[in-house]
């Protein structure tokens, strides 16, 4: 339990029945006074530990009129739903969750993870026949012969000793949808997604970078906060948080949005050296060697520590929009709506390995919870049912990336955001914080990884062989913390350009020789596109370079270099 103490500093709970153990580290968000875990049904024959938030718990309680609840915790419904509906209750839950439920009557158990994998979860098997479940890999890697990522949207039962997918939305088949685009439907669905995430009994805020996604989250939260239970407890003035390199002009964008919305804005600074010094801690907590994830996690990790020091325990963030709406710059090269739609489906299905992993673990490292309204299951169903022709980027028609989302919140009478922010071009996080940030990381890695070491990379790391010194450096640190074969296989690999899947690399012939997770690798799209083997920017007057807007899209981080 001590290995995961950082995730839940408010309470440590332990329950034993025969040879089964349930352990829980609680971060108290809803009903902090009485919601300690494990939670039980009336006669304590069913015990459950849950990580997450069940946003529709009040509605579910109304369906359980014959049950008595011990606490006001949103997670208290899980044991009672199991009593009433058996293991088929999972798709009734609207929220983010990972849970283990133990039925002491037959000593059986079930494990489930939320639809998209916003919460992290791992499963492992010991040589002695034991089964281990943990929110982080470090909770079981030393005790299991084999372990792996618990798949999102799945259920595992001890009776079947296997997985079953409980999340089966229409878009999962990747068939091409045909519902016409209606901006008001998108607007209402996303507003509802944000509003339901205002369920809290503790101080909270929003991560605000000044980019489109985090700014929309902040705008809707500020608009609907008054009158909520949270506002009655903590006041109706929203707090916003941003981190960046000191003197960064893009911090002005976040400040501009904060002033426009009237939030209490908190601006934190860090240096490139601060980030480099934190790399080992970041890899230990995020549990990956993926280059883009580490680049993006570091500022978020540093910011989360400072947010928690202010007494804030929950933040609302903007992950998921680019995957749903085709917002990454490489989507400019999507050849047709069919390819675009399939790519968005693949990106959403992989979110648990990238942005969800970062958002959950970078915040949980400091006992902070991140909520992500773009990944609301009802909102995803609405957005992914739209004819993908509406998501196609068409410059000649003035349709930039995520046009349908921007248009949905373009309200002349009651503006959500200033026009120039609503229609600002996309920039992925690790570039916005990365022209000097990434170059600093690469220079640091070059000091620690020699050319001779790179020659043997395929022998030292035959799986997901690192092809750059930066990737090799991260891999060395990861292997020191997590040396098992199972650990290596929890991290995805494959060719990528500007965060694409390997399949999307085929969209442009020039990309095959320019593989890099940076958005600048999207040659012919990004304003500061570069050849991987050439100088990043050359033959461009400095005044022109200085005028290029380089916006961060990871919530709460805005750095211009």
From TrEMBL:
<keyword id="KW-0028">Amino-acid biosynthesis</keyword>
<dbReference type="InterPro" id="IPR017932">
    <property type="entry name" value="GATase_2_dom"/>
</dbReference>
<dbReference type="InterPro" id="IPR033738">
    <property type="entry name" value="AsnB_N"/>
</dbReference>
<keyword id="KW-0067">ATP-binding</keyword>
<dbReference type="GO" id="GO:0004066">
    <property type="term" value="F:asparagine synthase (glutamine-hydrolyzing) activity"/>
</dbReference>
<feature type="binding site">
    <location>
        <position position="207"/>
    </location>
    <ligand>
        <name>ATP</name>
    </ligand>
</feature>
<keyword id="KW-0315">Glutamine amidotransferase</keyword>
<dbReference type="GO" id="GO:0006950">
    <property type="term" value="P:response to stress"/>
</dbReference>
<dbReference type="InterPro" id="IPR006426">
    <property type="entry name" value="Asn_synth_AEB"/>
</dbReference>
<dbReference type="GO" id="GO:0006529">
    <property type="term" value="P:asparagine biosynthetic process"/>
</dbReference>
<comment type="pathway">
    <text>Amino-acid biosynthesis; L-asparagine biosynthesis; L-asparagine from L-aspartate (L-Gln route): step 1/1.</text>
</comment>
<protein>
    <recommendedName>
        <fullName>Asparagine synthetase [glutamine-hydrolyzing]</fullName>
        <ecNumber>6.3.5.4</ecNumber>
    </recommendedName>
</protein>
<dbReference type="GO" id="GO:0005524">
    <property type="term" value="F:ATP binding"/>
</dbReference>
<dbReference type="InterPro" id="IPR001962">
    <property type="entry name" value="Asn_synthase"/>
</dbReference>
<feature type="binding site">
    <location>
        <begin position="317"/>
        <end position="318"/>
    </location>
    <ligand>
        <name>ATP</name>
    </ligand>
</feature>
<feature type="binding site">
    <location>
        <position position="243"/>
    </location>
    <ligand>
        <name>ATP</name>
    </ligand>
</feature>
<feature type="site" description="Important for beta-aspartyl-AMP intermediate formation">
    <location>
        <position position="319"/>
    </location>
</feature>
<feature type="binding site">
    <location>
        <position position="74"/>
    </location>
    <ligand>
        <name>L-glutamine</name>
    </ligand>
</feature>
<feature type="domain" description="Glutamine amidotransferase type-2">
    <location>
        <begin position="1"/>
        <end position="161"/>
    </location>
</feature>
<keyword id="KW-0061">Asparagine biosynthesis</keyword>
<dbReference type="Pfam" id="PF13537">
    <property type="entry name" value="GATase_7"/>
</dbReference>
<dbReference type="GO" id="GO:0005829">
    <property type="term" value="C:cytosol"/>
</dbReference>
<dbReference type="InterPro" id="IPR050795">
    <property type="entry name" value="Asn_Synthetase"/>
</dbReference>
<dbReference type="Pfam" id="PF00733">
    <property type="entry name" value="Asn_synthase"/>
</dbReference>
<dbReference type="InterPro" id="IPR014729">
    <property type="entry name" value="Rossmann-like_a/b/a_fold"/>
</dbReference>
<dbReference type="InterPro" id="IPR029055">
    <property type="entry name" value="Ntn_hydrolases_N"/>
</dbReference>
<keyword id="KW-0547">Nucleotide-binding</keyword>
<keyword id="KW-0436">Ligase</keyword>
């Amino acid at each position: 339990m001590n290995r995961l103490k950082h995730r839940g500093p408010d309470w440590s709970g332990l329950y034993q029945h025969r040879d089964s153990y349930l352990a829980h580290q609680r971060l108290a968000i809803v009903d902090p006074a009485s919601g300690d875990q494990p939670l039980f049904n009336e006669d304590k024959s069913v015990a459950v530990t849950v990580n997450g938030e069940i946003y529709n718990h009040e509605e579910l309680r109304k369906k359980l009129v014959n049950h008595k609840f011990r606490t006001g915790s949103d997670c208290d419904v899980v044991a009672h739903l199991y009593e009433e509906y058996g293991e088929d209750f999972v798709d009734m839950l609207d929220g983010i969750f990972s849970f283990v439920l133990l039925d002491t009557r037959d000593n059986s158990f079930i494990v489930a993870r939320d639809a998209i994998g916003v919460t992290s979860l791992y499963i492992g098997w010991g040589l002695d026949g034991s089964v281990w479940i943990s929110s982080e890999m470090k909770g079981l890697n030393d005790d299991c012969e084999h372990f792996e990522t618990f798949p999102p949207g799945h259920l595992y039962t001890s009776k079947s000793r296997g997985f079953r997918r409980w999340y089966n939305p229409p878009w999962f088949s990747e068939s091409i949808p045909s519902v016409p685009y209606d901006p008001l439907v998108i607007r209402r669905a996303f507003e509802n997604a944000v509003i339901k995430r205002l369920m809290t009994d503790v101080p909270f805020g929003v991560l605000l970078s000044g980019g489109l996604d985090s700014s929309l989250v902040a705008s809707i939260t500020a608009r609907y906060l008054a009158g909520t239970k949270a506002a009655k407890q903590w006041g109706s003035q929203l707090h916003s948080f941003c981190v960046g390199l000191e003197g960064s002009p893009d911090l002005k964008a976040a400040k501009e949005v904060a002033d426009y919305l009237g939030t209490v804005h908190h601006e934190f600074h860090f240096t490139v050296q601060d980030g480099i010094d934190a790399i080992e801690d970041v890899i230990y907590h995020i549990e990956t060697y993926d280059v883009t994830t580490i680049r993006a996690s570091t500022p978020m990790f540093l910011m989360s520590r400072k947010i928690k020091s202010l007494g804030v325990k929950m933040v609302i963030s903007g992950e998921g929009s680019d995957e749903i709406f085709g917002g990454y710059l490489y989507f400019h090269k999507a050849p047709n709506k069919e390819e675009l739609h399939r790519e968005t489906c693949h990106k959403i299905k992989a979110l648990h390995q990238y942005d969800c992993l970062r958002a959950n673990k970078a915040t949980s490292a400091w006992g902070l919870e991140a909520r992500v309204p773009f990944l609301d299951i009802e909102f995803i169903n609405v957005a992914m049912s739209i004819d993908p022709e509406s998501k196609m980027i068409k410059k000649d028609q003035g349709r930039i990336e995520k046009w349908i989302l921007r248009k949905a919140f373009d309200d002349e009478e009651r503006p959500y955001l200033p026009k120039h922010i609503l229609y600002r071009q996309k920039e992925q996080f690790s570039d916005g914080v990365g022209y000097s940030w990434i170059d600093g990381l690469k220079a640091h890695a070059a000091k620690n990884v020699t050319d001779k070491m790179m020659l043997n990379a395929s022998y030292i790391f035959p799986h997901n062989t690192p092809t750059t010194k930066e990737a090799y450096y991260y891999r060395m640190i990861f292997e020191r913390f997590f040396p098992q074969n199972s650990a290596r296989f929890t991290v995805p690999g494959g060719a990528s350009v500007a965060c694409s899947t390997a399949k999307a690399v085929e969209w442009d012939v020039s990309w095959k020789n320019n593989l890099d997770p940076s958005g600048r690798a999207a040659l012919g799209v990004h304003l500061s596109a570069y050849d991987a083997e050439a100088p990043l920017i050359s033959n461009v007057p400095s005044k022109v370079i200085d005028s290029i807007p380089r916006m961060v899209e990871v919530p709460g981080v805005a750095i211009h270099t």
